[in-house]
Amino acid sequence: MQSSKPQESGSSVTNIRPFAFWFSYIPNKVKLSKEDYESGIKILGSFSTIEDFWSYYQHMVRPEKLPGGCKFALFQEGIKPAWEDKANDEGGSFVLRIKRQYSNIIWEDLMLSYIGEQCQYNDDICGLYLSSKANEANISIWTRKIDQTKKESIEKWIKETLGFDDKTEIEYKLHPKHGEEQQSKGTVKRFDRGEDFKRRQEPDVRS
């Protein structure tokens, strides 16, 4: 993953809440302890304007090109993408398994909507997390502890942002520390363009 320190913004900037990019590379078949995981994931940098977001993002390898084992995250500044972080305590995540060829546009659409505060309960979304696999990307939307009303609203935001069919079901998992027994024992559905998308454009190729 490449990164670049943002250049000084001009006089006209679009301020947003502070966010941070995180990255790690952990081979998918390697099992790590909590301590190893937390020491392996590193912050790439933080930003609080749209201009600085693009200054980082334009230099980053897109999800479709990431090797398996790469973990990439966009979280509210001050929240670490780890289950043990206080903000994630008793929280969970919406999980999307995406074929690689659709991962660029889906990841970018989610990021832009998230930092643009398009979700009614944006405060309850801790961040976005992407795990690169051999043939797909697992994208999850991490939340604080939320009630059913907020869960339904955030799920609706995800569907509207990505152009999913209204009937599409998105699995929500509690973080293992607090709800492992409640998580689905089955396989998370992999979203297919022909089955689940009402509309989709080709991946963005900004560089």
Describe the structure.
With about 210 residues, the protein is α+β, with helices and mostly antiparallel strands. The chain has one domain: 2-Layer Sandwich (RNA Cap, Translation Initiation Factor Eif4e). It is built from six helices and eight strands. It has helices at about 35-40, 50-55, 100-115, 150-160, 175-180, 195; strands at about 15-25, 40-50, 70-75, 90-100, 125-130, 135-145, 170-175, 190. Strands 1, 2, 3, 4, 5, 6, 7 and 8 form an eight-stranded mixed sheet that branches. The longest helix has 16 residues, at about 100-115. The model is unreliable at about 1-10, about 180-185 and about 200-205 (pLDDT under 50).
* CA(first)-CA(last) distance: 13 Å
Radius of gyration: 16 Å
Indicate how many domains the architecture comprises: 1
Q: Which blocks of ≥5 consecutive residues have pLDDT under 50?
A: 1-10, 178-186, 199-207
CATH class: Alpha Beta
Structural class based on helices, strands and sheet pairing: alpha+beta
Q: In terms of topology, how is this protein built?
A:
Layout: E1 15-25, H1 34-40, E2 42-49, H2 50-57, E3 70-76, E4 92-99, H3 100-115, E5 125-132, E6 136-143, H4 148-162, E7 171-174, H5 176-179, E8 190-191, H6 193-196
Parallel strand pairs: 4-8
Antiparallel strand pairs: 1-2, 1-3, 3-5, 4-6, 4-7, 5-6
